[in-house]
Amino acid sequence: MHTRRNFFLSMSALAGVGTAAWACPAPVAQENQHSILMLNAACGEDNTPNVFEPAILRVNVGDSVTFVPTDAGHNSASKRGMIPDGADPWNGAVDENLTITFTVPGIYGHICVPHYEWGMVGLIVVGNDFSNLASVKKVRHPGQARKTFRALLKTLET
């Protein structure tokens, strides 16, 4: 079972340190390989429930991203209308790692299907390409997802 506690224990064992050193798990980034953690709550002061960490990830064309269910009950799926033309959509299983290789530049919106309405959403920018930004902004969202996507997209424009 993927839980934050198990993640901390695993990482602590690998690093040879106690769990107190792991106040917040960090996404892994290696050359051409990145990770996005799926968490029950954000780290830090705001403690926002159900988040992707990081919420916005910038990668190069050809890079891979692994969605890691650090806490149970999450998945990642591309959001219809929020991926570039020619890109393949995805819909990962709940509680399973999912690795996607991004070969089409542009902005990709992704959601956690069980927590979408609650605002568990994220963006991946591939190749620093914003050519589909206008179409991404036109997509409508329910509940908290609308507010969260709006805030994320606003940070891309600054």
Structure write-up:
The protein has 158 residues and is an alpha+beta fold. It is built from three helices and nine strands. The strands form two sheets. Strands 1, 2, 3, 5 and 7 form a five-stranded mixed β-sheet that branches. Strand 2 and strand 3 form a beta hairpin. The longest helix has 15 residues, at 143-157. The protein is globular. The model is unreliable at 1-22 (pLDDT under 50).
Keywords summarizing the entry:
disordered N terminus; globular; four-stranded mixed beta sheet; 158 residues; alpha+beta; 27% strand; five-stranded mixed beta sheet
Shape: globular
The share of residues in helices is: 10-25%
What number is the mean pLDDT?
Answer: 86
SS-based class: alpha+beta
Strand content: 25-35%
Determine Rg (CA atoms, Å): 15 Å
User: Could you describe the largest sheet, including whether it forms a barrel?
Assistant: 5 strands, mixed
Q: How many angstroms does the end-to-end distance come to?
A: 39 Å
Uncertain runs:
1-22
Number of strands: 9
Total DSSP helices: 3
SSE pattern: HEEEEEEEEEHH
Topology:
Elements (H helix, E strand, L loop, with lengths): L3 H12 L13 E2 L2 E9 L7 E5 L2 E4 L4 E5 L8 E2 L19 E4 L4 E6 L9 E6 L6 H6 L4 H15 L1
Parallel strand pairs: 2-5, 4-9
Antiparallel strand pairs: 1-2, 2-3, 5-7, 6-8, 8-9
In brief:
With 158 residues, the chain is α+β, with helices and mostly antiparallel strands. The chain has helices at residues 4-15, 133-138, 143-157; strands at 29-30, 33-41, 49-53, 56-59, 64-68, 77-78, 98-101, 106-111, 121-126.
